[in-house]
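Module 6 notes. Inverse folding takes a fixed backbone as the condition and produces residue identities as the prediction. Think of it as a translation problem where the source language is geometry and the target language is the twenty amino acids. Below is one complete input and output pair. Work through it position by position during the lab.
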């Protein structure tokens, strides 16, 4: 909506004023905690529009955007392919509560990139995808225990709010009030990349474990790749114990690799959860995997899961536009190459400023930890210097570069981030690292 459409004069409409009113209307002024600038201080910017690599706030300032709606906009903001697809569907009716062919089209797109997803069920968020996949895993195995890793974020379902990443890590919350002890009683949390801990757990409780769920490349405590062979070992352990391996690719799907973290790591999970990129920027989630497991989902089988808006034509068309574009030879690889160039440039810039940083980069994701030693788990991520990140964040923001407002969130790169955009980002980083040193 433009200033004219809201009827508010642009001179009185700015982020400070809107946020002050938002604090009265919305808890914390936002609809999702990660947006609130709690970790970095200051006022969140109210965004008016986005195009390509750029967003513009209501104050009229333009930024290079590395949040990209926390991942979905891999082609940039408002790419013609997606806008045209949404327009065409919107004109024909946006939802029917009946099957549409778009569901098959997007399911085929997903299966072509991730062959482990023999069957797919669309839902409306990553949270919902994870909740549903866990219910299914328990039904399939007849067991209750679920194993997750510290710092991995799997949405806000009760059972997953144990030592979680993303906003939970940013706000330093151990767990959330309101989660009954019984809901988390069957969730066991293990340090990421600690194979000994998982092996010990399987030795003692292997026959009770329904599933191990993980981000193959963690993106919710900053980017923390799995150690070589770690996920393959999890695959072997789960298989031996009759437990399922669930790869949560809500963030990593079409980002860590075109075929997700599972393609990157060469692992075939039993179930996969997706979200973000596959919805072309509209609300979405999906879970899928082995046909014998997915055949238990209602109405094919007894495991109930449903959704009024699930598989809606608008989302299906937007998602298809993105996945079809990413299938064109070279397009995804170029975005990953741009991300690698940015990561290398950031390392060089920090070195010139005499600052020790880690810049892990996987595919089209990266993050910057102010740490002299590699970050391998939640403990090492939270030891990184968050004060330096704060200064760096604000210096970049003042210079027109919009980063995720927390050291525990991934940066995302899009196809619209061209050489000039990267150059502009690195020039700003040279100045910002100097500020972070002070
Ligand atoms: N799983 C992972 C790995 C995520 O990164 C997220 C969100 O960031 C979720 C699940 C939850 O997805 P949503 O926010 O769509 O509920």
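Target side of the pair, the amino acids:
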């Amino acid at each position: 909506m433009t200033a004219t459409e809201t009827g508010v004069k642009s001179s009185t409409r700015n982020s400070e004023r809107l946020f002050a009113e938002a604090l009265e209307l919305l808890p914390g002024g936002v609809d999702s905690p990660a947006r609130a600038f709690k970790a970095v201080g200051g006022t969140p910017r109210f965004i008016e529009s986005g195009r390509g690599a750029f967003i513009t706030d209501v104050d009229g300032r333009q930024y290079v955007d590395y949040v990209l709606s926390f991942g979905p906009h891999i082609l940039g903001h408002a790419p013609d392919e997606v806008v045209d697809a949404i327009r065409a569907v919107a004109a024909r009716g946006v939802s029917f509560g009946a099957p549409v062919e778009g569901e098959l089209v997007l399911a085929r797109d997903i299966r072509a990139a991730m062959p482990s997803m023999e069957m797919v069920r669309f839902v409306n968020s990553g949270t919902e995808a994870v909740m549903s996949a866990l219910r299914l895993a328990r039904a399939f195995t007849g067991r209750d225990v679920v194993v997750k890793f510290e710092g991995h974020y799997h949405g806000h379902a009760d059972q997953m709010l144990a030592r979680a990443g993303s906003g939970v890590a940013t706000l330093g919350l151990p767990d959330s009030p309101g989660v009954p002890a019984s809901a988390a009683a069957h969730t066991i949390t293990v340090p990421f990349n600690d194979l000994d801990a998982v092996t010990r757990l399987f030795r003692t409780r292997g026959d009770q474990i329904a599933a191990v769920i993980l981000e193959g490349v963690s993106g919710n405590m900053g980017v923390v790749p799995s150690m070589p062979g770690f996920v393959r070992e999890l695959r072997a352990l789960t298989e031996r114990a009759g437990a399922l391996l669930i790869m949560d690719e809500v963030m990593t799907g079409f980002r860590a690799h075109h075929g997700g973290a599972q393609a990157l790591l060469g692992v075939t999970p039993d179930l996969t959860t997706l979200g973000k990129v596959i919805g072309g920027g509209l609300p979405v989630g999906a879970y899928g995997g082995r046909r014998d497991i997915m055949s238990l989902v209602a109405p094919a089988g007894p495991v109930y899961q449903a959704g009024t808006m699930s598989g809606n034509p608008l989302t299906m068309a937007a998602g298809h536009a993105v996945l079809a574009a990413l299938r064109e030879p070279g397009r995804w690889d170029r975005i990953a190459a741009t991300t690698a160039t940015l990561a290398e440039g950031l390392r060089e810039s920090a070195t010139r400023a005499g600052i020790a940083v880690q810049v892990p980069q996987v595919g089209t994701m990266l993050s910057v930890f102010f740490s002299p030693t590699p970050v391998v788990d939640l403990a090492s991520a939270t030891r990184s210097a968050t004060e330096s990140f704060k200064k760096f964040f604000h210096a970049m923001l003042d210079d027109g570069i919009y980063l995720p407002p927390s050291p525990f969130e991934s940066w995302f790169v899009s196809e619209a981030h061209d050489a000039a955009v990267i150059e502009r980002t690195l020039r700003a980083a040279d100045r910002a690292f100097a500020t972070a040193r002070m």
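Reference fact for the lab report: The chain has a mean pLDDT of 94.
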